[in-house]
Amino acid sequence: MDATFSQLAMLGSSLVLIFGLILLWRRRVPAYINAFTGQSIALAGVAGATGYFGNEPELYWVAAFLLVLKGAVIPALLRRMGRRFGTERELDPYVNTATSLLMAGLLVLFGYAVMRPLVATSQLPTRASIPLAMGLILVSLFVIVTRKKALTQIVGFLMLENGIALLAILGTYGIPLIVELGVFLDALLGFLVMQVFVYRIQETFQTMDIGQLSRLRH
Amino acid sequence: MAPELLLLALSVASYAVGALAALIVRGMVGRALVAVGALVGSLATLALGAWCLATGATLAFAAPWLPLTGLALRADGLSAFFLVVVGLGGAAASVYGFGYSAHYDGRYSLRLLGAMFNVLLLSLAIQVLADNALTFLVTWEAMSLSAYLLVLVEHDQHGTVRAANWYLAVTHAGFAALVAAFLVLAGGDMTGSFAAMRSATLPPATRNVVFLLALVGFGTKAGVIPLHVWLPMAHPVAPSHVSALLSGVVIKMGVYGLMRVALDLLGGGPPWWGGVVLGLGAVSALLGVLYALMEHDLKRLLAYHSVENVGIILLGVGAGLMFQSYGLPGLATLGFIAGLYHTLNHACFKGLLFLGAGSVLYATHTRNMEQLGGLISRMPRTAACFLVGAAAISALPPLNGFASEWLVFQTLMGGALVPHPEAAIGMAIAVAMLALTSGLAVACFVKAFGITFLALPRSAEAERAREVPASMQVGMLVLVGMCVALGLTPFLVVPVLSRALAGLGGLPLTPIGFSLRLPFSVSGVTGEMSPLLVGVGVLLLGTLTAVVLRGVADRRLRIGDTWGCGRVGQTPRMEYTATAFAEPLRRVFAELYRPTEDLSIDFHPKSKYFVRSIAYRSEVEPWFERLLYTPLLSALRGAAVRVRQVQAGSLHLYLAYMTIALLALLVVARWSR
C-alpha cells in the first residue's frame, strides 16, 4: 500500500517538475500555458492520491479546487492574454537554453542536498518526492529571474505557487483547508494584479519585455 | 459597567464617528460633525481623566479577543492627568477648528483634515492609557503619522512638504530609539504588561541604555534642543487648530513617555539621569526663547516658545529625578508636580496663543509680524484673548504660567538641600537660566503682542482685518478661562497632582500644598522670602502711583495717534518694527546668533545725499544645528548614494537578489550546524 503510494507520489511529482522544465526550452506562449495546465492537473492528481492513501478527505477538495482554478480558469485567462500578445516570443532570455537546463539540473540537485535531513528523518511514504518540490520551486524562481517577457514570468510565478502547494501536500499531507483556500485566493488575486500590470506595461512600452522597465528609473 | 469604561467607550466611539463623518459627509455639515465628534470625544476623555483623578479610580482593560493586537489599557494617576491635558486641548481645538476650517473648503482636503484630526485625538487618548509596549508603540506611531498628515494639509504652501519630511524623519529616528528601548526593557516580549517591566531587575548598564534611548526617543517628540529642528518648521505650517494641538498636547507625549519610562517603569536611576534631563531642559528653555526673539513669523515664534516651555517642564522633571535619587522624595514630588503643572498650563496658554495666531492668520492671511499691526481695534476679542495668553506664558501672576514656573523655581531652590556640591551648583545655575528665560519671554511677548496688535496696520491686509467667527472665539475663550482658573487655584491643583503621582517609582504620598513662600535653608543660614508680600507691596506701590497721578495729572481728555509722540502725519513706516525691537538683544547675544547682515543703499546718481531705497536683510544663523546636522546629513546622503548602486532599476536584478538571498538562507539553514 505504502509502496504504491510512494511510487505514485514520485511519479506525480516528477511529472510536475518536468512540466516545469518545459518552460526552459520552449519559446512559445501556448506551450507555456499547456505546460502549466498539465502541471496543475498532475498536482491535482498528487493531491487526490495523497488524500486517498493518507486518508485526508479534505485533500479531495484541494484537488478539486486545483483542477478548476489552476487547471481551467487561470489557463483560460492566460490564453486570453496570450491571444492579445500571442506573437511575442521569448526570444533572447538572459541565459540561453543549454545553460538554463544545466542550471535547472544543478538547482534540483541543490534541492536534494537541502532536503536531505528532512528526507532522512521523515517517516512519510512521500518523503522521496519532497526534494522534487523544492527543485520545482527553485527552477520556477530561476525562470522568473532569467526570462524577459511578462507572460513567461507570470507562468513562472504560478509554477512557483504549484511547487509550494506540492511541498505542502507531500510534506504535511496538506495544510488546513482554510489556509489552502486563502493561498488559492492569494494566487488568483496576485495573478489578476499581474494581469493588469501586463496590460499597462504593454500600453506604455508597446512590448511585454520587462527589461524595458529599467527605463522608469530616473 | 463602570463609569470609566463607559467614558472610554464614549470617547472612542465619538472620535470614530467624527473621523468617519469627515470621510463621508461634505460641506458645513461635515465640518460640524467632525467638530462635534472631536468635541464629545475630548470632553469624554477629559471627564475620564478628571474622574480618575478625583476618585482615584483606576481603569484596566485588555482585549484578548484581538489576539494580534495585544491591546491592554490601564489608567493610573499619571495617565489620568495626561487624559485631562488631551481632553482640554482637544476640546478647544475642535470648537475652534469648526470655524477655522471653513476657508479650507474647496482649497484643501477637508476629509483628510477632519479624519486625521479625530484619529490624532483618539491615538493620543489611547496612548496615555497603554499598558504594554506594543499598544504604546502602535498608538505612538498612529499619533506621529496622523500628525504628519495634518502638517501636510496645506501641501501647496511654501515649505510645507519640507517641514513635514523633516518631521517624519526626526520622529522616525526617535521611534526607532523607542522601539529599541522597549525591546531591551521588555526583554523582547512586546506584549508583556508594564507591570512585568516594573518588577524586572535589570543590570545598571542596561538601565542606562534604556534611559538614554528613551531620552532620545521622547526628546525628539518633545522638541528638546538639539532634537528640536523639526518643531519650528512643522508647527507653523499646520492648520492653526492643529498647531495648537501639536504644540499644546502632542509634544507633551514626550514628557509623558519620559516620566512613564524613567520614573515609573525604571523606578528612577542614578543622579546623572536627572542631571542630563535638567541640563537639556535648561539649554532648551534658554535657547528656545532666544531663537523665538529673533522670529518675525508669529507661528514660528510660538513654536520656538514651545521648545522653551518644554525646557521648563524638563527642569521640573529633571530636578524631580535628581531629588528622587538623592533620597529627597518630598522635593522630588514637588519637581514632578511642577513639571506636570506646567505641562497642563502650557497646553492651555500655548493652545490659546496658537489659536490666536490662527485667528490673525485667518483675518490677514499672513504670519509675518512686519505686515501686521493695529489689529487690537479691528479684532478686539482676539487681541484680548491673545493678551491673556501672552501674559500667562510670560508667567505674570495671577495667571497659570506664574503658578507653575513658581513651582519650578521653588523646586530648583531646594537644590541647596542636596549634600552634593555639583548638584547644588547645577541647580543654582538652572535657577539663573530659568530667570533669564522668563525675562526674555516677557520681552518676546511684548514684541509679539505689541507689533501684531498695537499701533497702525503695516499692510493693506492688516488694515482690512475683521473679527473672526464666533466658534473660533469660543475656542479661544475656553482656554482663556482655563488660564485664569488654573492660575487662581494652584492650591487646589497641587494636592491633586501629588495624589496622582503617589506610588510612581516608589514616591510616597506627600501632602504638598502650594505656597508662595520659598522653603530655602542653607546650612546655618535660613533665608526666607515672601513673594506674596513683595506682590502686595508692588500692587500697593502701583495703586499709590495711580492715585497720585490721577490727583496731580492734567485730566483733560486728549486723543492723539498711537505712539505719535506729538508728530502729525504718522505713517506705518515710521513704526517700530519687530526687527528693531529685537535688535538690542541681537547685539547682546551676537556670539550666539552670529547674524549675517546685508545692507544695500541705492543712491541717486547725481548726489549721494539723496537715497532712493535702502534694503536691509539680516538673518540669524542656527550654527549649532548646522554643526550637528550637516555632517549627519552628508553621511546619510553618501550612504544613500552607495546603496543606490544596488538598486539598478532592473526588475530581474531585484528578483535575482531575492533568489540569491533565498538560496543563501537555505545553505545557512542546512549547513550551519
What value does the average pLDDT of chain A take?
85
Q: What is the ordering of alpha helices and beta strands of chain A?
A: HHHHHHH
Largest interface: A-B, 19 and 15 residues
Q: Structural class of the secondary elements of chain B?
A: mainly alpha
Write down how many β-strands of chain B occur, each being a DSSP E stretch of 2 or more residues.
Answer: 6
Q: Could you please describe the fold and organization of this structure?
A:
Chain A is mostly helical. Chain A has helices at residues 2-25, 29-53, 58-84, 97-121, 130-146, 150-172, 177-205. Chain A has one domain (2-175, 186-212). In chain A, helix 2 runs antiparallel to helix 3. The radius of gyration of chain A is 18 Å and the shape is globular. Chain B is built from 26 helices and six strands. In chain B, the strands form three sheets. Chain B has a two-stranded antiparallel ribbon with strand order 1-2. Chain B has a two-stranded antiparallel ribbon with strand order 3-4. In chain B, 69% of the residues lie in helices and 5% in strands. Among the domains of chain B are: 283-506, no CATH class; 623-671. Mean pLDDT of chain B is 86; it is low at 520-527.
Keywords:
heterodimer; A: 218 residues; mainly alpha; 0% strand; B: 673 residues; two-stranded antiparallel sheet; 69% helix; 5% strand
How does the SSE layout of this entry go?
The complex is a heterodimer of chains A (218) and B (673).
Chain A: H1 2-25, H2 29-53, H3 58-84, H4 97-121, H5 130-146, H6 150-172, H7 177-205
Helix pairs in contact in A: 1-2, 1-5, 1-6, 2-3, 2-6, 3-7, 4-5, 5-6, 6-7
Chain B: H1 3-24, H2 27-55, E1 59-62, E2 72-75, H3 77-100, H4 110-127, H5 133-151, H6 160-186, H7 194-199, H8 204-222, H9 230-237, H10 240-250, H11 252-265, H12 271-293, H13 298-325, H14 329-364, H15 375-378, H16 380-393, H17 400-413, H18 421-453, H19 460-463, H20 470-488, H21 490-501, E3 520-522, E4 525-527, H22 531-552, H23 578-588, H24 590-593, E5 596-603, E6 611-619, H25 623-646, H26 651-671
Antiparallel strand pairs in B: 1-2, 3-4, 5-6
Helix pairs in contact in B: 1-2, 1-4, 2-3, 2-4, 3-10, 3-14, 3-20, 3-21, 4-5, 5-6, 5-10, 6-8, 6-9, 8-11, 9-10, 9-13, 10-14, 11-13, 12-13, 12-18, 13-14, 13-17, 13-18, 14-16, 14-17, 14-20, 14-21, 16-18, 16-20, 17-20
